[in-house]
Amino acid sequence: MKGLAFSCAGEALEALPMGALHWPAERLLAVADLHLEKGSSYAVAARKLLPRHDTRQTLGALAALVDAIRPRTVVCLGDTFHDRDAIARLPEVDRIALERLAARTSFVWIAGNHDPAPPPAGWGEVAEEIDRGPLVFRHEAQFGPADGEVSGHFHPVAALTVRGRGLRRRCFLTDGRRLILPAFGAYAGGLNALDPAIAQLFPDDYDALVVGRDAVRRLSWRQLRPDATLG
After folding, report:
1. pTM score, two decimals?
2. What CA–CA distance (Å, rounded) separates 104 from 40?
3. How do residues 119-176 score in pLDDT, each as one tens digit?
4. Which tens digit of pLDDT belongs to each residue from 44-103?
5. How many Å apart are CA 200 and CA 226, to the nearest integer?
6. CA-CA distance, 222 to 208, in Å (whole number)?
């Protein structure tokens, strides 16, 4: 699976078109903000009639990545589950699929603001954050210098104008020192990459690695729009 090669904190990384990060030297795959069972949460709490297939779709995409990359470690950067009760709402078929994935490789579950409670025993390692050489993996970026920080939380999206048409696309954000991953979940939504909550984390220039259907394209933040209609 071919992605876009780039460097962060001196490490050679790859942004994959499915919205995941590959660190080839460590055989590590990282994904952020799966928000499993968001559909069932909205159906119960908000009474919104969303199709309740988001978990199956998201897990299928993750399984395809594991098949293609064959990582030694999968790091889930928090908000893997949409809320504290999401695991209890997992349909049996999706629970089995998740358990099979966890049995195939080493999973690390980073605690997020939506899912501070750990997953069931046997599903892998649970941590607030982990250090792997020059990179540190956590759920939410910390304000201030953070060389080698890899995080999620913000669900960044790039707003673009292509041939007069407004588009929004998931994106990675990096200045070569820190990296924010896009949300991997089918129902995760997104925050504009120029939003002040994100921009304040990058005091100098930063780039958006914009996820397309088959490729990832690198753009300067100056090429983005503050908003755009959905394409």
Report:
1. 0.91
2. 27
3. 777 788 999 999 999 999 999 999 888 899 999 999 999 998 877 777 899 999 999 9
4. 555 555 555 788 999 999 999 999 999 999 999 988 887 777 788 888 998 999 999 999
5. 15
6. 10
Residue 202 DSSP label? -
Q: Which two tokens stand for residue 167?
A: 């588009």
What is the C-alpha separation between 230 and 215, in angstroms, rounded? 19
> How many CB atoms within 10 Å of residue 229?
10
In percent, the amount of the chain with pLDDT more than 70 equals: 89
> How is the chain split into domains, by residue range?
11-223
- Residue 74 contacts residue 105 (beta carbons within 8 Å): yes
Burial class of residue 57, CB neighbours in 10 A (0-12, 13-18, 19+): middle
CA torsion, points 70, 60, 96, 50, in degrees to nearest 10? 150
Q: pLDDT digit string (tens) for 100-134? A: 999 999 999 998 886 666 677 778 899 999 999 99
Beta strand extents in 34-80 (DSSP E only): 73-76
Residue 110 amino acid letter:
I
What's the longest Cα–Cα distance across the chain?
A: 51
37 close to 89: Cβ distance less than 8 angstroms: yes
Comparing C-alpha atoms, which of 153, 150, 157, 143 is closest to residue 115?
153
Q: Which fold does the domain 11-223 belong to in CATH?
A: Purple Acid Phosphatase; chain A, domain 2 (3.60.21)
Residues 57 and 119 sit within 8 Å (Cβ to Cβ): no
